[in-house]
User: Which sequence fits this backbone?
């Protein structure tokens, strides 16, 4: 029995070395997506759920004020995953999760401050990703509000 889905959350917000960030965020992610893509039509499409970030920017030419390289790298991965899904429409689909800050399941002092910005609890994000793996999604990109709605 082959795998039917993958939740890909490799990487972190700040990798000081841009070459390492590109390798981990772009190369590894796309290699995994390609490896998981079935070579022939199957009954169900392979579902690839990618955890990106709330500030990701798909427009690679847009001027950005903060975390430019990180946001462009995440946006490039999103662009390439969507293109891969379009090229393999019969066998592969992707859903990109764009959480803001990911907060702990239980409230902490640190989370009280982070919650002032767009954020989602880790258990809510996990439930939404599992929902997409099991049921699919009509949206290719899901921001905090959509993520939260799926977890309920």
Assistant:
């Amino acid at each position: 029995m082959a795998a039917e889905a993958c939740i890909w959350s490799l990487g972190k917000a700040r990798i000081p070395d841009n070459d390492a960030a590109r390798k981990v965020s772009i190369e590894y992610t796309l290699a995994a997506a390609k490896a998981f893509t079935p070579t022939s039509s199957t009954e169900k499409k392979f579902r690839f759920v990618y955890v990106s970030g709330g500030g990701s920017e798909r427009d690679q030419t847009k001027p950005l004020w903060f975390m430019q390289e990180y946001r462009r790298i995440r946006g490039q991965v999103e662009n390439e995953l969507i293109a891969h899904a379009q090229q393999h429409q019969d066998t592969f689909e992707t859903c990109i999760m764009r959480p803001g800050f990911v907060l702990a399941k239980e409230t902490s002092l640190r989370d009280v401050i982070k919650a002032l910005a767009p954020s989602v609890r880790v258990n809510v994000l996990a439930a939404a990703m599992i929902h997409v793996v099991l049921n699919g999604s009509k949206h290719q990109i899901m921001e905090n509000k959509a993520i939260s709605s799926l977890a309920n």
Summary: The first helix runs from residue 18 to 36. The helical segments are 18-36, 68-87, 109-114, 122-135, 144-151. The chain has a mean pLDDT of 86. The two ends are 31 Å apart (CA to CA).
